[in-house]
Specification:
The complex is a heterodimer of chains A (about 350) and B (about 325). Chain A is α/β, with parallel strands linked by helices and about 350 residues long. Helix content of chain A is about 30%, strand content about 20%. Chain A is built from ten helices and twelve strands. In chain A, the strands form two sheets. Chain A has an eight-stranded mixed β-sheet with strand order 6-7-8-3-9-10-12-11, sandwiched between helices. In chain A, strands 2-1-4-5 form a four-stranded antiparallel β-sheet, with helices on one face. Chain A is globular, with a radius of gyration of 21 Å. The relative contact order of chain A is 0.13. Chain B is built from nine helices and eleven strands. Classes of the chains: A alpha/beta (about 350), B alpha/beta (about 325). At the A-B interface, helix 6, helix 7, helix 8 and helix 9 of A face helix 6, helix 7 and helix 9 of B.
């Protein structure tokens, strides 16, 4: 019998958030697959639903009233939503762990670095005290911390932002996870520190054949780390493909516009292309294509709902009915302001 | 014409110690700035480099311990009270966080019009309202905004309001402290375009504080790189970005995220933490690839013979 690799599947997941006392849909039937050894970049601007999707992977959003209205998340064919709380706790930080955005707030200020990592190990692995101590030191060394032993008794406030992020990554690695959910892992850090954390994440991911969901607004980070990409806009995945497909041939008008307005890909000083209008908030999505009211290609056809495979080519998909079959790029001239 | 000239600014902060007895932290050490009419001078550096402290000193929001500041030819570092308020007509600030920098209880017409109450007190309420509407319009906002409150706007719109608030008194200089770092990239593009447009129309000078080198390369004419409170390199954006002289500048540029996946180098070693700042000599020497013995005694002076591209390093990068 063929061994099927373990996978974490998000299947047609819809999430609602509480707005003024009502549950409003914020994520609309999103599907993602985390495969061993691959990094999936989930990109989008604020409010597109990427972070609540990431939190749902560990059912963390429920504490803020983010509820599932449809779909499922499957870990080895077992639904996270039908899992009892005690099993879920084993998954969290165990098989699936998380690296958060804010290294300044994600560590507990009143516990030492050593005790916080020890806690994770004790929760998930059966080890004797000496081995635990050794493992903590090894984990800190793995993330590039010199003099790991002396760090054990230090408190988070003595560390810089970059070092705290390393400690958080060490904690995320503590129980030998298979999946890492990294939500904007470098956003709060200085550029030079960012680069080091990127290298650290990539080498750990490769060494241990980890599967990672990388949630970010930053195409630079996607270019550095991701193998596959899903671009989100207003609660939906609007384009997905391999990182090469997305960068070489961005196809959905939103992806193209978003990539095109980065200063680094434009001539210094020249006016940057912009996307007119604003992202519609949950509850105010148009009935058809969510991007239609800001899209230069929009017409009557866009008022019907569009599926993600409206255009597809070798696994590369785009939720757009105006991708010209002959030329995979939407038929808008490159010079036009999108 | 120079509109803002700061010479040898220094600022120490006390750190630690319940009674302020801790050692002094040199937040800014001997920094000079020369901003010309109509140009954008960027100050780049990482957190703790002193770039925001420098901006706040030239704004006179905090007092410099040492140094002089000339605004439109007048020494202003000891001006106080009403005269200081009057000077602020010429130099205005735009802050990073459009969510925190607008008073949530004030309508937009009041927030944006506030500067006019100080600088043109004779204007009637109706005249003020007209001026606010005009300025908002320049910033891409329509009249409906006037009677709304900040929470009714998105981040990008709030930043437009913040820019309108600064522009309403018709300043010569805007000090922009990370004005686009809290914004999404699509919104960032709109705000950068707006800033460029207004600058050309009104011949404004910008002192642009940022940690984002791509944004700086896009918007600035000249750039000043700071490390640990000191200027390490200064020159035109083209010179500094294309042939950096200081090893720190070179490292910063190399740390920029790549633009496309095929630029990945594939060399990943887990680099150890290196965050040290030397107390004596060149502050960067603990992490510098060009470091030599004499760096420990370096006095921090400009080592270039080119006033247009200065660098403060004994062993600069040679191409």
């Amino acid at each position: 019998m063929r061994h099927t690799p373990a996978m974490l599947h998000v299947q047609d997941l819809s999430l609602t958030v509480p707005i003024k006392g009502k549950q409003v849909m914020a994520v609309d039937r999103i599907s993602l697959t985390l495969e061993p050894g691959r990094v999936l970049g989930l990109v989008g601007e604020s409010g597109c639903g990427k972070s609540i999707t990431a939190q749902a992977m560990l059912r963390l959003g429920e504490y803020q009233g983010v509820l599932r209205s449809d779909g499922d998340i499957l870990l080895d064919d077992q639904s996270l939503f039908s899992m009892p709380e005690n099993e879920l706790r084993k998954v969290r930080g165990g098989r699936v762990s998380m690296v958060f955005q804010e290294p300044m707030t994600a560590l507990n200020p009143v516990f030492s670095i050593g005790s916080q990592i020890t806690e994770v190990i004790n929760l998930h692995l059966k080890m004797n005290k000496d081995d635990v101590q050794k493992r903590v030191i090894q984990l800190l060394q793995d993330v590039g911390m010199q003099d790991a032993e002396s760090l054990l008794d230090q408190y988070p406030d003595t560390l810089s932002g970059g070092m705290r992020q390393r400690v958080l990554i060490a904690m995320a690695m503590a129980a030998n996870p298979e999946y890492i959910i990294a939500d904007e892992p470098t956003t709060a850090l200085d550029v030079s520190v960012q680069k080091r954390i990127i290298q650290l994440l990539r080498s750990l991911q490769q060494q241990k054949n980890l599967s990672m969901l990388l949630v970010t607004h930053d195409f630079g980070l996607v270019a550095e780390l991701a193998d596959d990409v899903a671009v989100m806009y207003a609660g939906q995945v609007v384009e997905s493909g391999t990182v090469e497909q997305i960068f070489d041939q961005p196809t959905h008008p939103y992806t193209r516009a978003l990539m095109g307005c980065r200063p680094e890909v434009n001539k210094p000083g020249a006016a940057l292309p912009v996307i007119t209008g604003q992202v519609p908030s949950p509850g105010n999505w148009p009935t058809g294509c969510h991007f239609a009211e800001r899209c230069p290609l929009a017409d009557m056809m866009c008022q019907e709902s569009v599926s993600l495979n409206a255009w597809s080519d070798e696994g590369h998909q785009a939720r757009c009915v105006h991708v010209d079959v002959a030329s995979p790029k939407p038929s808008v001239s490159d010079e036009a302001t999108v | 014409m120079t509109v803002l000239k700061a010479e040898s600014l220094s600022k120490n902060f006390r750190r630690g110690g319940l009674w302020g007895g801790g050692a002094a932290l040199k937040a800014v050490d001997n920094v000079s700035i020369d901003l010309k009419e109509g140009e954008t001078l960027a100050i780049v550096g990482e957190s703790g480099s002193g770039k925001s402290t420098t901006a706040r000193m030239v704004m006179r929001l905090i007092a410099a311990d040492e140094g002089s500041i000339h605004l439109l030819g007048k020494e202003i570092s000891h001006v106080r009270g009403k005269r200081l308020r009057m000077l602020r007509k010429h130099i205005q600030m735009v802050f990073q966080d459009p969510f925190a920098s607008l008073n949530p209880r004030m309508k937009i017409v009041e927030t944006v019009g506030e500067g006019l109450r100080v600088h043109q007190p004779k204007l009637s309420k109706a005249e003020r309202r007209v001026r606010v509407a005009q300025t908002l319009q320049q910033c891409g906002m329509d009249e409906e905004a006037l009677d709304r409150y900040p929470h009714q706007f998105s981040g990008g719109q709030r930043q437009r309001i913040g820019i309108a608030r600064a522009l309403i008194v018709k300043p010569k200089i805007l000090v922009l402290d990370e004005p686009v770092s809290a914004l999404d990239v699509s919104v960032q593009a709109q705000i950068l375009n707006l800033l460029k447009e207004i600058q050309t129309q009104q011949n404004l000078s910008y002192l642009f504080i940022s940690h984002d080198l791509s944004v700086v390369q896009h918007i600035a004419d000249r750039v000043l790189v700071m490390f640990a409170g000191r200027v390490v390199e200064q020159g035109t954006v083209t010179d500094v970005f294309e042939s950096p002289k200081h090893p720190y500048t070179k490292m910063l540029l190399a740390a920029r995220p790549i633009d496309y996946p095929h630029e990945r180098t594939g060399k990943d070693e887990i680099a150890e933490v290196s965050e040290g700042i030397a107390d004596t000599g060149c502050a960067f020497r603990l992490r510098c690839s060009n470091v030599q013995d004499d760096c420990a005694d370096f006095d921090g002076l400009d080592q270039s013979d080119d006033p247009e591209h200065s660098y403060h390093c004994l062993h600069p990068i040679t191409d």
